[in-house]
Structures are given as C-alpha cells and as structure tokens.
Amino acid sequence: MPNLDDYLLWRGDLPLDVAPFTELDALALSLISYVDFPPETALGEGVVLKDLPPMLEPSTAKVKKNGHKPFFGHCRMLLDDMAVLPRYGDIRVHHYVSIRSAEYDIQFSAITLDLPTGERFVSCRGTDYSIVGWRENFTMAFESPVPSQAAALQYLEEAAKAGLPLMVGGHSKGGNLASYAAAHLALPEQDLIQAVYSFDSPGLDDATFASDGYARIRPRIKAYIPQYAIVGLLLAHHEDYQVVQSDVMGVLQHDAFTWQVEGPAFLLAEGVDPAAQLFDHTLHAWLTTCSPEQRALFVNTLFDLLETTHADTLTDLLQGTGAKLLTMLEAAFKLDRDTKKMLVQVVGRFVTIGAGKLFESLTGRNLPQATHTHLTDGGTAHADGNASK
Known about the structure:
Blueprint: H1 4-11, H2 23-31, E1 47-48, H3 71-83, E2 92-101, E3 106-114, E4 120-124, H4 131-139, H5 147-160, E5 166-171, H6 173-184, E6 193-199, H7 206-209, H8 212-217, E7 221-226, E8 241-244, E9 261-262, E10 265-266, H9 274-289, H10 292-307, H11 314-318, H12 321-333, H13 337-362
Helix pairs in contact: 4-10, 5-6, 9-13, 10-13
C-alpha cells in the first residue's frame, strides 16, 4: 500500500508553486525534525535542503525483515530523498535548536523551514530515545507548561517576528508542542498562522483547552491519528482529528511511515480500533481518580527508579536488562513506606479499572464518553465521538 515514500516519488518532481502544499508535505517536514542537523543550520541564513546531505553522517538505516525501516533512520533517509527533489530541494532550513537536559527535565528540538512560495514552516521534534524526553512526556499528566512547551512557544514567537505566513507541525510530542505554542501565541502574531499539523500527538491541558487563544487557533489545527492510537489519545483534550489507515498492527502504527496515502492525502479509516479505545477510556478513567499530587509522585518515583540504572536512553535501558531491573528493585525496596503504598495503590487502580472497562466492552455495555472528538471521512465531529457526514 502507498505511504509517504510513495507520495514523494509521485509528487516530488512538482515544485510547491505548481502543486499546492498538502497534509503529506506537512508530515514530511515534521518528520525531518528528528534529524540532528549540522551547526550551519543554527544560523539565521541557514542552508538549502539540497545542500544538507553532505554535511550529515551517512544514513545507516537498514530495512527490517518485515520490510519496514527503523523510524529514526527512516527520517534521516527521508531527508536524503527530499533533498534531491524539485519540490523540496530549495527549502531553506535555519535556526535549528536542540536541547536535552536531565537537570531541567527538557528534551526539545525544532527547526524553521522557509518554503520557496513564501511561507514559513516550524517543525517541532517529537520524543527521542532519551529517558529525559519520556519523563517530560509523563510530566504532562500533572504539569503545564512542561519545559519543552515553554521552549516551543518562545521558538514560535521568534519565528513569527519575520511577519511571514506561518505553519507549524510535529509528530508525537512535536504535535503537542506545535498546538500548545500556537494556542499561546499572542495576537497579532497568532493571525500569521495558516495551519497547525498534529500527527498522533498527546492532547492538551485543561487551561490551554479553555483559553481564548486555543479557541482562535482550533479551526486551523489539522490533527491525524492512526487506527490503533495510543500516544495520540493521551491526556485530556484533543483537537478534532481524522483517523488514518496503517499497514501494521498495534502500537507500531505510531510510526507515520506506515500510514497509507491516496494521491495527495491520507487514506482514512472509519474510526479508532476498539482495543485502542479501551486503553483510552481506561487511562482517562484512571487519571480522573488520581489527584495531580498523586500523578506527580507516581511519575517522579518511576523515573527516579529508572535513573538509578544510569541509563540515558531507552536503548541503554534495554542493554543488560536483568542487572538494571535488579538495580531498580533494590532502589524500590529503599523507598519509604508511604511512597511504596502509593505505587501499589495507583498501579492496582489502573488494573482494576482496565478489567472493568474490558468487562463492559465484552458484555456490550457502553463505555463512558471520551473528552475529545474526532472526524472521519470529512465528517463533522461531535462530543460523543460520532461523526456526521
């Protein structure tokens, strides 16, 4: 089935002033933010995309046995492909920034791309393999803004100073950062934003969702999730979204290279997979039973235990798993009595709620209404998740 790579082969020879910008172009520009750009791109004048590949380390991504490429390596290969295509080669990339700090609990990266047609696209990177990046994701359950959200807003404010028409987007956490920054951008700069693209991204906090800035920007947010969406249904509030078909199963659908396309657009599905809906309802029901203080204590304790392994990335964590697990267990036994009791209660509550939701699903009872809406096949979204045509 055709995917983003096939779209580039089909449309890549047509410059943006010949064939208009599409949602698939937005996905491509969002995904290349996962690449570690060279120092030359941190400057204001930047580098045109077609000149970038020689400045980067050669791509070493190999195709897996199932025919798919590792996600981060695939993003690097995507940039190589875009660089030689008339559609993207003259895009100028600049003001690259990448911050990762365990001390300040932040993982943030973004780059600005100036299109030959006069628009400016700000691309926010999603979560990488770093432990600090995942810790910041979980922190969104009880804190806003998290450091990367504040950094994204500051970055977008700087990008808006040029007065050019703006688009902003990102995949995974990057889409959350794009939506958050666009919602909090002050007028008149917010009026420069033409569109916000969110690809399988966590939702927004209560205060942002209720803000005037979000109300103004909401009609310009274009959100997409795969059928088996886990990351894209996290947290409380979500933009109206469209559901995209994928050629893999389960959580692997978070890889946007598996999303199916038809011509210049995504191939849409009828709705979210029931298993993903079950997890979504379980998670939201669980979060409502936990106070912000409990969420904070749970997340901080969990990641403090992970940090006892001295692993910086998920890859580090998976190396020598047995020894690292033993280290975490030893640290857990040293926790004070109240913290251990809280951990057991919170985890047990999630399991209990999950079992109850599964029983409701198997017996045909209606699951409680979600706190977000969705679109399918261009329908109009309603609060109960049913789409009209």
